[in-house]
Amino acid sequence: MNTKNKKVLELLMKEYPDAECELNHKTPFQLLVATILSAQTTDKKVNEVTKDLFKKYPTVDEFLLLTKEELEQRIKQIGLYRNKTKNILLMCRQLKEKFNGEVPNTMEELMSLAGVGRKTANVVLSNAFGVPSIAVDTHVFRVSNRIGLANAKNVLDTEKQLQKAIDKELWSLAHHLLIFHGRRCCYARNPNCSECIIKEHCNYYKQITK
Questions:
Q1: Which of 8, 15, 53, 189 is most buried (most C-beta within 10 Å)?
Q2: What is the pLDDT of residues 37-75, one digit of tens each?
């Protein structure tokens, strides 16, 4: 890992010592459901919905008792709730039929499930199974490309570049640090560059202050 990248991560660790997954969950299954729900929705909104949902339906077996209409009713505050309902119920059936009701712990198997893309799979691998992973969501994509940790046009290339730019044992932590920074400082519109603790190392800041 080069000196700049090391310094950036050190500063972010100092700024966000509590950086971790902000989706509330107790099991890999709950994390998988919460991550599917979180697409184009804030973690805060997901946590509001899953608080009661996971209390009443904590496992795959309980979820399989839900009808499509019942689940839609319970998650309708969340964006794309109809599509997410369809995917979650299908995903639950797949878990039961193919994986004995257990959430698998490989990228390939996770991505075989309904509603699970690469980002969701990485979140589950990292936070449920401790597998070093960098899930590239909208914050990670924006922040890493602005700073210069990556220079990519899409999320897959960003993930590959970050894997090369950052030591493997720090991948999962780096994912959380970049999300925290994106949510608290490096906003999509009007990033708060004046308060940013890594601005001296940021390509975007150098460009706007030329």
A1: 8
A2: 999 899 999 999 999 999 999 999 999 999 999 999 999
Nearest to 28 by CA among 106, 97, 135, 87: 106
Residues annotated catalytic, as ranges: 119, 137
3-state secondary structure 92-116: HHHHHHHHCCCCCCCHHHHHCCCCC
pLDDT at 210 over 90: no
Domains of the chain are: 3-19+134-208 (1.10.1670.10), 28-129 (1.10.340.30)
User: Count of residues for the chain?
Assistant: 210
| Token digits of residue 66 | 């839900």
Q: How far apart are CA 5 and CA 14, in angstroms?
A: 14
Q: What is the pTM of this model?
A: 0.92
